[in-house]
Write a structure and sequence with these properties.
Order of helices and strands of chain A: HHHEEH
Number of domains of chain A: 1
CATH class of chain A: Mainly Alpha
Distance between the termini of chain A: 27 Å
CATH topology of the largest domain in chain B: Bacterial polysaccharide co-polymerase-like
Number of helices of chain A: 4
Number of strands of chain B: 4
CATH class of the largest domain in chain B: Alpha Beta
Shape of chain B: elongated
Radius of gyration of chain B: 34 Å
CATH superfamily of the largest domain in chain B: FepE-like
Largest sheet of chain A: 2 strands, antiparallel
Strand content of chain B: 15-25%
Strand order of the largest sheet of chain A: 1-2
Helix content of chain A: 55-70%
Distance between the termini of chain B: 74 Å
Helix content of chain B: 55-70%
CATH topology of chain A: Arc Repressor Mutant, subunit A
Largest sheet of chain B: 4 strands, antiparallel
Structural class of chain A: mainly alpha
CATH superfamily of chain A: Winged helix-like DNA-binding domain superfamily/Winged helix DNA-binding domain
CATH architecture of chain A: Orthogonal Bundle
Structural class of chain B: alpha+beta
Order of helices and strands of chain B: HHHEHHHHEEHE
Strand content of chain A: 5-15%
Radius of gyration of chain A: 15 Å
Oligomer: heterodimer
Chain lengths: 95, 201
Amino acid sequence: MSDPTILILASLADGDKHGYAMMEDIQRFAEVRLGPGTLYGAITRLEERGLIRPVSSDDRRQPYTITASGRRVLEEQTASLDRVVKTAQKRLNPA
Amino acid sequence: MRRWLGLAARLYPQSWRERYGVEFEALLDDVELRWSDIGDVLRGALKMQLKVLSSYVKLVAAVAMAGAVLAVAWSFLTPKRYVSSSVVQTGSQAGDPETVDQISHAWQEVASRASLSELIQRPSLDLYRGERNRQPLEDVIEKMKTEDLRLDISQDRGETSLHVSFIYPDRYKAQAVANALTTKILDASRERWRVSPADRN
C-alpha cells in the first residue's frame, strides 16, 4: 500500500497535520518516505477531489483535515485492502 | 542542495505556486533533504506543468469544438440567400446632374408601393409567400425595399452607371426580379442607355 493519496488520508484520519507532520507520520506507520514533490502532488489531487481541505493557520506550515468524502474513500479502500490481505493470508497458510 | 531544490520548486506552474508555494517552501525548510528529493521535486513540477497544459489544451479544444458545432448548425439553419445584380450604363458623362435626376425619378417610380406590390404578387414570381401569410403586405413591401433591394449610382470610366441588386432565397426569382426592375427603370427613364446584364448568384 504505497499510493501516496491513501497514505495521506490514513495519516489525516487521526487528526489535522501539515506537510512535514504527514511525512514523518507516514514514514513511521508505513515505513515509506514520500518526497516533497510526491507529497504535494498527492495533496493537490486530494484537495481538488474534495477529500481533504486546508484548515486556517497563521503559520507558513499549512495544516489539512480529512473531509467526510475523504473518510468514506479511506474506509472503502481499507475494506478492499483488508479483503485482499485476508485472502492472501488464507492462501499462504491453508488450514 | 536547498538552493537546487528552491530552483526546482520554481519550475512549478505559477498558479500552483500561488496556492501552495509558501507551505511547500516551509516543508523544504523543515525536511531533512536527500539528493533524490531534487528529482522528486522536478518530477512533481513536470507533472503539474503537464496538468496545466492539458487543462489548457482541453479548454481550447472544447471551445474550438463548440465553435465548429455552432458554425455547422448555423450554416444548416440559415437559409441560403442569392444576390442578382444588373448594371445599366447610361452613356452619360459621370456626375451629369440630369442623368442622376432621371435615375432618381425612375427609381422612385420602380420602388413605389404599387410597383413592388405588383412584383411581389406577380403569379410567375409569387415572392415572400410565407411572410405574406404572417404579415401585412405593407410590411413585406417595406422589408423588400429596405433589406433586399438595392440601387447604387456609380461613376465608372467617366460614365454614370446604375447597379440594381436583389437578394432572395430562390436564385431564379432573384434573377427574374433584378431583370424586371432593370426593365422597369429603363421603361421609366424613356431610355437612351445601354444595358449590360451582370447577373451573379
